[in-house]
Amino acid sequence: MREFGVVWVLALALMAGGCATTTRDEDGHVTVSDPFEGVNRFFFDLNQRLDRNAGRPAATAYRETVPVSIRGGLHNVLDNLGGPVTVANSLLQARLESAGIAAGRFLVNSTVGVAGIFDVATDWGMPSRPRDFGETMGTYGVPPGPYLVLPFRGSTDVRDFAGNYLDGYATPLRYVRYDGRNYVGLMKSTLGSVNNRANNLVTLRDIERASVDYYATMRTWYMERRARLIEDTPVRTGELPDF
């Protein structure tokens, strides 16, 4: 009953934010509505302090001490756990070919790839292309709503925040029944954050050094990346960080 109420709260928040949309100007650049900029900047500064004191050092140590093969295997496992989410959202977006590839990836990597440690599917012509419910809603014209910066999480918007919650229903770990399930979910989230931060150490450092206003730059990068995903145009990791 509690989860049903949360879904309704998110749905109402999404509808309330529907007046704020992401559009492109004459030069093709994304324009963003940020009515909560004051609060967002507060949480952005908080997240930056946490990153400098904990996130970045942990990601640096992880990258420097853990062998590439182990880091690659962990990345593959985390990517594989997102397979059912991608299958569900590909079907919702009526991208049947994408759904078939995602289902094939999950099946092959979960078996031949030993629980996803090895990305056999890519070598077999099934490349990774994650899809989420925020992207699905955007595909059907649902606006992003206001830009948000959340503590301990970072950039998002109302649509993606709601979509991330709903994606949880397609995550395999949700249906594992044992007492330690919450700890496994927390470990997955933590490892995913460290892995993602380690993969973007150089990209984020370069963006921060080149930015006059780091907050505004990251806001634009986030909304640009999400817009490209919804438009199904290429997102180059070296150009835009993986949020």
What does this structure look like?
This protein is mostly helical. It has one domain. It is built from 11 helices and 4 strands; from the N terminus they run αββααααααββαααα. It has helices at 2-16, 37-65, 68-81, 83-92, 96-111, 120-123, 133-139, 158-167, 181-199, 201-210, 214-231; strands spanning 23-24, 30-31, 147-150, 154-157. Strands 1-2 form a two-stranded antiparallel ribbon. A two-stranded antiparallel ribbon has the order 3-4. A hairpin with a 3-residue loop joins strand 3 and strand 4 (154-157). The longest helix has 29 residues, at 37-65.
Attribute tags:
11 helices; 4 strands; two-stranded antiparallel sheet; 243 residues; mainly alpha
The assembly state of the depicted protein chains is single chain
Domain module count? 1
Biggest pleated sheet? 2 strands, antiparallel
**SSE ordering:** HEEHHHHHHEEHHHH
Tell me the helix content.
55-70%
- Detail the poorly predicted runs: 12-21
Radius of gyration equals 18 Å
Strand order of the largest sheet: 1-2
Strand percentage? under 5%
Total of helices: 11
Task: Give the overall shape, derived from the CA principal axes.
Answer: globular
The number of distinct β-strands equals 4
Which class of secondary structure composition applies to the elements? mainly alpha
- Terminal Cα span: 31 Å
- Average pLDDT across residues? 84
